[in-house]
Amino acid sequence: MGLLDGKVAIITGAGGGLGEAYARLFAREGAAVVVNDLGGSRDGSGDGSVSAAQKVVNDILAEGGRAVANGDDVSTLAGGENILKTALDAFGQVDILVCNAGILRDKTFANTTEADWDLVVKVHLKGTYCCTMPVWKWLKDNGRPGTIVMTSSTSGLYGNFGQSNYGAAKAGIYGFMRVLAIEGRKYGIRVMGLAPGAFTRMTSDLPGRAGREPDPLSLPENVAPGVLYMVSDLAADHTGKVLGVSSRGVREIKMLETEGFQPGRPYTAQEVAENAEKVFFAESQTRTAPVR
């Protein structure tokens, strides 16, 4: 028996990289998979070909799995609705959504154009909304439990040079996930965040990686088991949490607060400065995670 027997999973941006690794593993674990991919390049340009998604589907079918391709644009609500329709037409249900599709237009903030900002936020943040809304309503209206994984990033949770647009979108996804995890409890819908770290076409030319052979542990296939855990019943008790999954393993990323300065009366800015050791975490208590 597989961990996802009888389940139907939608995975966006699954024509390559991390999404492809998720699709292949989910299918091997018994899920029927909708492989969505617009067929664009890393910066969001492209002809919208479904060929990348279809290749993944063909490979899954050759292994005896169940899958269907979809080439809709995740950044429109019509696209999100069509992705759900593909799942319902082919398999009659949906149980899992992994919002993985994304693009990059990395530049220092001063060199970022409005178009660079708008498109990255549209694909990542709005795209997560556009794909989640139809699935959310279908699960809610049909009284079915389900699991939604939203892809954030350490670039949004910790920050990273040259990725103001990407980081802002990924931080927004974290907030979106936290709210839906609260709202989803009454419907049995689990929502989790993912901050993956892998060597893909999205990350292959980042500082320190360009021209280097990838560490085998950093390949997408070594992130996929952590995501399989998240969408399976093994994680049934967890919602509203972010897991960092990378070659370093699997760990939860949390937002914390200090004891703080609590005077219980009106106070001055000078008093805040005098109690800074209570307001801020000590440097020894903090860490900056590597990108993705």
Automatic annotation (TrEMBL):
Superkingdom of source: Bacteria
GO molecular function: oxidoreductase activity
Protein's UniProt name: Short-chain dehydrogenase
Family in the record: Belongs to the short-chain dehydrogenases/reductases (SDR) family.
Keyword field: Oxidoreductase
Family matches, as Pfam families: adh_short (PF00106)
Residues covered by the Ketoreductase domain: 7-205
Origin species: Phenylobacterium parvum
